[in-house]
Amino acid sequence: MQTKFEYDGSLNPRFSPGLFGLEIESIKAYGGESQTPDFILISSAGVTRPGRPGLNLDEEPPAVRMNEQLGGILTWKWRGEEVVRQSGLNYTIIRPCALTEKPGDQALLFDQGDNIKGQVSREAIAALCLEILEKPQACQKTFEVREEEQTPNSQDWGQSLASLTSD
């Protein structure tokens, strides 16, 4: 399997489209009872937008506008979220806005309701995942994330996560 894009955003000259499928019968986590997330799913902002009444597609990111042409990618991500929510695990579902290769040195904005747009670096999402592994406030929550235009002094992850509503 190859990605269609290079790290610099240009098209991969060796890419050729093909079928890929992965059937998962079940998801389980090893270990005892935990008060922190056992499973973190990186989904995508926009998963609930395709087909949303009153949505102006001209103002939406390409993945939302082209969901059907992209094989229903957002629809499948949303279905994956539902499987995780029903798994019985302590989970966190992160819905990043458009991912970039920029340094992860900006403040992060968390929101719920699947309405925010913007960008966030892959580096910032990786750092967020590491922080969440130790935060009980992250359990049973789904949220969107994007970068702010300011550099953070220090972000209080626990407080940011505690302000979110549980699923």
Please describe what this structure looks like:
The chain has helices spanning 62-65, 73-85, 122-132, 157-162, and strands at 39-42, 91-96, 98-100, 108-111, 119-121, 141-147. It is of the alpha/beta class. It has a domain at 39-149 and 158-162: NAD(P)-binding Rossmann-like Domain (Rossmann fold, 3-Layer(aba) Sandwich). Strands 1-2-6-4 form a 4-stranded mixed beta sheet, sandwiched between helices. The chain has a two-stranded parallel sheet with strand order 3-5.
CATH topology of the domain at 39-149 and 158-162: Rossmann fold
Give the number of DSSP strands. Answer: 6
Radius of gyration: 17 Å
Order of helices and strands: EHHEEEEHEH
The helix content is 10-25%
Q: What is the CATH architecture term of the domain at 39-149 and 158-162?
A: 3-Layer(aba) Sandwich
Which structural class do you get from the secondary structure elements? alpha/beta
| Spatial ordering of strands, largest sheet | 1-2-6-4
**CATH homologous superfamily name of the domain at 39-149 and 158-162?**
NAD(P)-binding Rossmann-like Domain
The termini sit apart by 34 Å
**Which stretches are poorly predicted, pLDDT < 50 over at least 5 residues?**
none
Q: TL;DR?
A:
This protein has 167 residues and is of the alpha/beta class. The protein has helices at 62-65, 73-85, 122-132, 157-162; strands at residues 39-42, 91-96, 98-100, 108-111, 119-121, 141-147. It has a domain at 39-149 and 158-162: Rossmann fold, CATH 3.40.50.
